[in-house]
Amino acid sequence: MATKELAITQINALSKLESPTGSQLSQLKRAIDLLDESSALFTPHERARSSRHRLMDKMKHKYQF
Question: Where are the domains of the chain?
């Protein structure tokens, strides 16, 4: 649970940066991967509103991870 919260905090902070540096993007990718490892999958009808979609899927698409 603590791992998930740490990853969420980092993703939220780093995703607000207008022009993240390469180092910050690497940190964001690590946080997304950490959240992926510590989060459960959602059923299809729950995915669009899930934190997994907002914090992982959208970030991966936005930053092309």
Answer: 2-63
Judged on CB neighbours under 10 Å (0-12, 13-18, 19+), 53 is middle
On the question of pLDDT at 7 being above 90, the answer is yes
Q: With contact defined as beta carbons under 8 Å apart, do 38 and 62 qualify? A: no
Q: What is the CA radius of gyration of the chain?
A: 12
- Across 7-39, b (16+ Cβ under 10 Å) vs e yields bbebbeebbeeeeeeeeeeebbbebbebbeeeb
10-56 residue pLDDT tens: 999 999 999 999 999 999 999 999 999 988 777 878 877 888 888 99
CA-nearest of 17, 4, 20 to 56 is 4
